[in-house]
Amino acid sequence: MKNKKLVMIPGPTPTIEPIQLQMARATASFKDPDFVRDFKELVIDLKEMLGTAGECFVVAGTGTLAMEMAIANATKGGDAVLVVSHGYFGDRFVDMCKRRSLQVDVLSSEWGKAVSVDEIEERLSKKSYRALTVTHVDTSTGTRAPVEEIGRMVRRFEETLYIVDGVCATGAEPEHVDGMGIDVLLTGSQKAFGVSPGLAILWAGAGALSRRKMLGTIPDAYMDFEKWMPIMNDPFQYWGTPPVNLIWALKESVRLIKEEGLENRYRRHRRDALGIQAALESLGFRILAEPECRAATLSNILYPEGMDDRQFRIILEEEGIVVAAGLGAYAGKAFRLGHMGHIDRHVVVSTICAIERTLFRIGHPVEFGKGIRIYMEKSLG
Ligand code: PMP
Q1: pLDDT at 265
Q2: The CATH number of 6-13+262-380 is which of 3.90.1150.10, 1.20.200.10, 2.60.40.10, 3.30.200.20?
Q3: What is the CATH number of domain 17-259?
């Protein structure tokens, strides 16, 4: 009998039945009073959940659109932007900014390490930047940025809007927009919210909204905060057709998050990550990110010397677990395991167990149950 496939890539993450059911509903008119009410409640809940008195935008698109939307509403051609990059997704901001004729400076780290708050402060002190972008968790490296500490520091630089890419973090790593001094936070639906891909979600604090106002007419219509603001406040109005079923699914996800409790959810992700990472280390793998900047949402796992990436991932998939390939210099040397969203202990235990079976099948020495024991000790302790 074939194993059921569990998609343990760092997004899209597994969708669970209550969320699937929302996506399977007959699509309503976006003017349907019940849908309008659902959408309005969702926006209010999201603002409360991530802590902003500003605005929240939920639009059809992916995380990349949300990244571009943040830049489009915060800058105009010629402005200087500082990009802090911990990998592939941090670098994505550089290309985006260049295309918009922004002057971009980049502060990059070696993959697996984080740029320090002091280094960022030094750059901001030397030159006036209109925006700073930080990727909370870079999915290519599993590196977590010290978002809260950066926010505390960046408050001194009033002209600099602080944009945080939370695509691989929001809903799993602690974030609070106003409380952490974040001006724009952005994410997509397919990661820690555990909804299918297709929604770009952004939170904009008061500073970001006043910057948007100051810019006047911007060249982008679909991405314009000012076009969407009336809809987010009164979803009976129209600008672009809302993706009805994804909005219902996101609302269900937010309901589940509230039921779990946001703090409990953050704690679960942190404990699971520590358990999974220790389990994999006990089986002979290494974790790319340094312990002090390891994400709770995914792990970039380096193979033991001589282990074949393709063979490992093909057999692991036969054993029922789909993981993602390493990126950049780590292609062929590492795999990426997502552990975020609506995943329970059955899922984590099955994943570790399938990794043990895979090691056995490729002839790597393995003591059955060792990884699971370590995971249980670390995550329950
Ligand atoms: N930022 C980060 C940190 C990501 O992980 C991703 C997607 N993996 C993106 C941005 C881009 O999101 P999307 O693929 O939904 O466009």
Answers
A1: 98
A2: 3.90.1150.10
A3: 3.40.640.10
